[in-house]
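Example S7 (structure tokens).
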């Protein structure tokens, strides 16, 4: 009996056995093959440690639901245009001019009566799922970053009045026009009533169908689809076999004539990628041209916006300002766009990486990094003001 008790006291407990097994497995070299090779598993850096805009994307990826990250990051179909937007900046070389003395850089300008500390706007992006405060946090962060103007999306996740109340910086409003005047008038009246100073009309989504949300549902990465905001026009089942919403297959140039009768603020046409369409914009009284391919989310296998910017600038010949987006990630990218004819640039994905990663302070930090990089690039190339930036600053080798 005594021997049995001694054996029982010396037996390994279940807890000890599991501890030994866990130690054995943890020491196995085979564990290396189970690591995710695509993501860094080190600690999340503090906001003050972020050096460039690219630093924010992996933090945003780690924090966002997969569906929200996919909506922000991917493009249409095979994503050729999405990639080309970014690659095009590699095909433009900067040609520095040696300054004759100390350079004091002043990147300030004005555009359609709006004073800009830097030639930068926030592009209109639907922000549901990126941060609990969504566009309100974006507006606050943009205002803190030298009053960077924000273009509020027609499909915003918050009412435009709530966004406007979040900060004091300047706002513009982006419209997805609908057939008939009632919806357009009501929507624009609401935007103007809270102080939006210009209307950006998106016309490059004539017949697009974005499939990423269906892809996510197939992979079960989200239990429920991201809902459309209440303020946006209700969607109806398409009356055509192409999955394209009926609210998009009707755009005509007379739309701008109708909108001009509704508003007295500047009208901007967004989605221009040809000189011919830019000239038609002028014929219909548009106050500015917005060169954009929707960040590669509208039509695949189209040109990068940087490729078409020079021909549009040549056609416009300074008669109206030119805004530009798609692919910007660095201050040198902004400088290249300005040299090729843009009056200002609009930033989409990078500020939202900052928002998703660190909230309004993160978005502010991304903008301040890009602002600093632009000033450094202007100083390094001997261009002290925006007026001194012209096409002699670059050499292009578009493929």
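Recovered sequence:
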């Amino acid at each position: 009996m005594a021997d049995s008790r001694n054996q029982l006291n010396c037996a390994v407990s279940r807890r000890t056995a599991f501890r030994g097994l866990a130690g054995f497995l943890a020491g196995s070299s085979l564990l290396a093959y189970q690591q995710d090779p695509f993501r860094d598993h080190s600690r999340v850096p503090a906001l003050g440690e972020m050096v460039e805009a690219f630093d924010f994307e992996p933090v945003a990826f780690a924090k966002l639901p997969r569906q929200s990250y996919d909506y922000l990051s991917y493009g249409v179909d095979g994503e050729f245009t999405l990639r080309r937007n970014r690659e095009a900046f590699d095909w433009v070389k900067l040609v520095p001019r040696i300054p004759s003395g100390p350079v004091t850089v002043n990147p300030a300008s004005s555009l359609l009566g709006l004073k800009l500390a830097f030639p930068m706007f926030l592009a209109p992006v639907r922000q549901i799922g990126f941060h609990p405060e969504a566009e309100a946090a974006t507006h606050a962060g943009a205002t803190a970053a030298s009053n960077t103007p924000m273009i509020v999306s027609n499909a915003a996740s918050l009412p435009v009045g709530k966004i406007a109340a979040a900060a004091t910086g300047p706002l513009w409003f982006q419209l997805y026009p609908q057939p008939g005047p009632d919806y357009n008038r009501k929507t624009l009246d609401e935007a103007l009533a809270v102080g939006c100073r210009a209307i950006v009309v998106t016309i490059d989504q004539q017949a697009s169908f974005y499939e990423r949300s269906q892809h996510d549902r197939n992979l079960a990465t989200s239990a429920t689809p991201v809902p459309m905001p209440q303020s946006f026009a209700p969607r109806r089942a398409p009356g055509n076999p192409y999955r394209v919403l009926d609210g998009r297959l009707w755009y005509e140039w007379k739309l701008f004539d109708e909108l001009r009768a509704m508003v007295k603020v500047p009208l901007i046409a967004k989605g221009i990628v040809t000189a011919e369409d830019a000239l038609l914009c002028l014929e219909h009284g548009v106050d500015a041209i917005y060169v954009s391919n929707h960040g590669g989310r509208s039509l695949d296998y189209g040109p990068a916006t940087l490729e078409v910017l020079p021909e549009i600038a040549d056609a416009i010949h300074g008669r109206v300002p030119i805004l530009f987006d798609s692919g910007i990630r660095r201050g040198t990218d902004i400088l290249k766009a300005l040299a090729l004819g843009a009056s200002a640039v609009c930033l989409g994905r990078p500020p939202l990486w900052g928002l998703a990663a660190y909230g309004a302070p993160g978005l502010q930090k991304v903008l301040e990094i890009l602002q600093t990089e632009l000033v450094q690039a202007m100083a390094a190339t001997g261009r002290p003001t925006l007026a001194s930036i012209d096409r002699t600053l670059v050499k292009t080798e578009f493929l």
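Notes on this example. The first strand starts at residue 92 and ends at 94.
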